[in-house]
Amino acid sequence: MISIALVLLGLLLAPMASAAMPEHHTMWTYGGGAIYRGYDAYAYVNSGWYLMFTFTADAARDTLVVEDGHSLKPGDTVGFLTDGELPQPLTAKTLIQVNTVNGNELTLTRAGYPIDIMTAGTGTHKVGKSVRSPSENLHLFIDSVSLPKGVTARLEYAARAAELHYDNIQRKYYTWAGGMPFLIHFSAAVDADVGPATAKVTMSMTGYPARTVTIPLEVRPAPTFAATQPPQHGGAVPKALWQNTLINIGRKWCDPDSPYGNTYNFNNESQVWYYDGAGLYYGLAELTGDSRWNACGDNISRQYQSWIASRGYVVQGWRTFARAFTRPTCAPSFQDTVVKMVETTGSPYVGANGNSAGGSVTDLLMRETALALDLQVVYERITGKRPVHLQRSVDFLLTMFYWLFEAEQGMEHQTFMSGMAMRSLINYWEFTGDPRVPHVARIALDYMWSKAWNGSNIVGVPAPYGPHC
For residue 279, what are the contacts with CB-CB under 8 A and spacing of at least 6? Predict the structure, then answer.
């Protein structure tokens, strides 16, 4: 009897002994950084309590081998830490989903694609998921004393939050999760103290000791900008060759003598409509003086317009191309489409208040944020009304530019998306004269010229998730 009792007691205690205890971690801080007098900036912080488990990576099998006693299951969102280098393509700044669990072996997925584990990494790695408090109540406090004079801050949202509200002094924030990204909105007065500073957020969750997260911040004078005449074309590629290449590529996708022969499938992103083919054909007509190219753009725009209407004017952020609706000769119909895209409730980036309104502060959604800004600028040009999230989109993109091109700590830098963002910001600058735009655009271009090209290839761009060629 005694031996049986001891065995049973051992079985009961074994899982308790091996169970992981929640640990507080700040997985990443993105944003803060630079804020200019008279303007706003954002910080996006992933901090909370996590159940962490050590693992090794098996690149041959595309699996993680996790320690005994883990509690991870399919569908869990997980983050990663290491004291060395994480297995590629995992990063400490990216949240990924568990796909399958077979004992101690896990496979991962992101955006529906299996993760291809390419290396084993170095050092000791940990994978973890956030935990919830027993009362499912998390409080966040911004310590206003830590802010420089003239700078204010407020919490705007936390991902996966079910209840969002402030107390009567606008400093306390409640949500229903234990570890999650949260967004802080900073505003600097025109006479704010200039120089480096920090912002501090205290996290308190029932059952766990309070923790403080520190966010770096630098207040800068508002930049000045003086327009100068650009130099004549003197690049490595002769202008005639460059222009003829554009024309040949344009003809590949549309015959200007028979521009209405193509029918497009707007779920097929390999077709010329994607990434703003219509706007590019309008640009080609302007560049060459050959108005026939406008008809190629019109054919795309009209079909695109019909597709948007069929979706109730709610379109995914990466498929939102406002330049398709900027042709003056088609203004009445196209303008109505732009207005409905912005004002329709449920539009994921501009149509409704919510966590994703205006885009995102991280470069993971730089493309979507740039396209959201394009749409909002076109909307304001048409209506004369400022979209509620336009300035937020601008501040998001400028925050990304600081982290990509000054701090050099981006999440998943795709340089072509930086080009898209610069085009969107320049379009906004031509409309508003915001002096930050040419200042940060120059920093971005200097970075690309000196660090993003080695003479034959783009460097520093991670391989995208999903199937590889």
Answer: 297, 321, 323, 324, 326
Phi/psi for 459 (5° steps) reads -120, 160
Which token pair is 57? Answer: 């990576």
Count CA within 13 A, CB hemisphere, residue 151. Answer: 33
Does the predicted model carry a pTM greater than 0.70?
A: yes
Q: What is the pLDDT of residues 325-370, one digit of tens each?
A: 877 555 677 888 888 888 876 665 554 444 447 788 888 889 989 9
* pLDDT tens-digit series, residues 200-226: 888 777 777 788 888 889 999 999 877
Question: Which residue is it, tokens 């802080």?
Answer: 184
Nearest CA among 413, 402, 396 for reference residue 355: 396
First to last CA, the chain: 65
Please say whether the beta carbons of 133 and 122 come within 8 A: no
Alpha helices in 289-365 (DSSP H): 292-310, 331-343
pLDDT, one tens digit per residue, over 358-394 is: 788 888 889 989 999 999 998 898 889 888 889 989 9
Q: Which two tokens stand for residue 269?
A: 């992103």
Task: Calculate ∠ Cα 239-328-429, nearest 5°.
Answer: 65
In contact, 216 and 429? CB cutoff 8 Å: no
Q: What percent helix, strand, coil does the chain show, rounded to 5?
A: 35, 25, 40
Cβ-Cβ contacts under 8 Å for 397 (sequence gap 6 or more): 359, 366, 369, 370, 373, 421, 424, 425
Mark 326-349 as b/e (b = at least 16 C-beta within 10 Å).
Answer: bbeebeeebbebbbbbbbbeebbb
Phi-psi region of 195 (alpha: psi -120 to 50; beta: other; left: phi over 0): left
